[in-house]
Amino acid sequence: MKTPHLSRRIRALANCAPITEEQMRDRSMRSAVFRARTSDEFANQQSFDQAVAGLVRSIPIPPDIAEWFSAKDLVSPSKWTWKKTVRNPAVLAIGIALVVIAGVLVFQFVARLNDFPGSATARKLLTIAASTRSVLLDPVSADAGTLSDLFFMKHGLEHYDVPAEFADFRTIGCRVFEDDQSQRVAQIWVAEKRIQFFLFPAERDVKTGAVLRFPGWRYVHQEGWVAAVTEHNGVCFMAALPGREKDLAPYISKTKQ
Predict the structure, then answer these.
(1) If you average pLDDT over each of 32-41, 77-86, 182-191, which comes out highest?
(2) Quick one: which H or E segment has residue 98?
(3) Do 149 and 202 fall into the same domain?
(4) How many domains does the chain have?
(5) Residue 89: which domain range?
(6) Alpha helix (H) ranges present in 136-204?
(7) How far is residue 14's CA from residue 3's CA, in Å, rounded to a whole number?
(8) Has residue 252 been placed in a domain?
C-alpha cells in the first residue's frame, strides 16, 4: 500500500492497523487510520484482510487440535498445588538459600552467647597455637608455676601467673611475643598432650580503663582446637589443646567445684 500524501510514521501505523477498529486502543494508531481512510488503497487492503480473516475463521479445526487451545486453558491460569510449587527448582533454590542463611545466623547468635571479654584474642591465640612448633620456643624444663618469676624478671610482666591447677605441669619451652594489637603474650608449651598455656592482658573498659572481669572458666573453639580461659589480676590465662571440650574438661574439673 502506498500513500504518498501521508507521512512515513502514519503509513507505518496504517500498515500495522488491525482488521477491526474495536482492537485499536492506541491513540496514535486511531489517528493514523482515520487519516488513511481517504486512501482507496488502504480501504482495499482492509477489505482484503477482513475477507482473509473470515475465510480463516470458517476453516473447521479438528477436535484433537482444538483440545490444545481450549478456552479454559487460554483464559484460566493453571492451578499450582503446594506440592508442585515446592518441587519447582527456583522455589527449591530459594528455600535452600534461606535455610543456609538462617543456619549461619543461628550459629553466629549461639557463638555470641558464649563470648566474653577477651574471647576474640583467645581465638587468635588458638590459631597461633595450631601453627606453632615447640622448637620455636626457648627450651625450659621446669614446673609451669615457676615461670611467673622468669616473666617478671626478664620481661617485666606482672601477674603472669599460672593457676595452681596447672602449676605442676612440666614445661618444654616458653617465649614472650607481641600480638597484632601490640599486647605482650606469654606462651608456654608443656609435655602433656601438646597442651599450651597463654597469658595475655585482660580487656579493659575504653572509657574508665577498668578490667572487664568474668567469673570462672570460659571455652573457646577455633580450627579444631579448644581452650579454657580464666581471668585473675587483670591477666587472662588460657589452656589450649587440639580436640574438644571433653578432652580439656578433666584438667579443669576441680576448678569448677
Answers:
(1) 182-191
(2) helix 89-113
(3) yes
(4) 3
(5) 82-113
(6) 147-155
(7) 10
(8) yes
Is 204 inside any structural domain? yes
Q: Does any domain span residue 73?
A: no
- Identify any residues that bridge with 185 across adjacent strands, giving them in sequence order: 177
AA identity, residue 150 = L
pLDDT of residue 111: 61
Cβ(220)–Cβ(111) under 8 Å?
Answer: no
Say if residue 91 is in the same domain as residue 43: no
Q: DSSP readout, 209-240?
A: --B----S-EEEEETTEEEEEEEETTEEEEEE
53 and 24 within one domain? yes
Distances (CA, A) of 209 to 90, 156, 158, 215, 237: 54, 21, 17, 19, 20
pTM over 0.85: no
* 240, 125 Cβ separation under 8 angstroms: yes
Return phi, psi of residue 176, to 5°: -125, 130
Report pLDDT digits (tens) over 63-72. 777 666 655 5
Q: What integer is the mean pLDDT of 37-64?
A: 77
Kindly state whether residues 143 and 29 are assigned to the same domain. no
223 and 124 within one domain: yes
Q: What pLDDT digit, counting tens, does each position of 107-155 carry?
A: 766 666 668 888 999 999 999 999 998 888 999 999 999 999 999 999 9
Separation between Cα atoms, residue 151 and residue 176, nearest integer Å: 8
158 lies in the same domain as 237: yes
What is 107-147 written as a DSSP string? HHHHHHHT--TTHHHHHHHHHHHHH--GGGSEE--SBGGGH
Residues 6+ apart with CB under 8 A from 126: 220, 221, 222, 223, 225, 227, 240
Residue 90 lies in a domain: yes
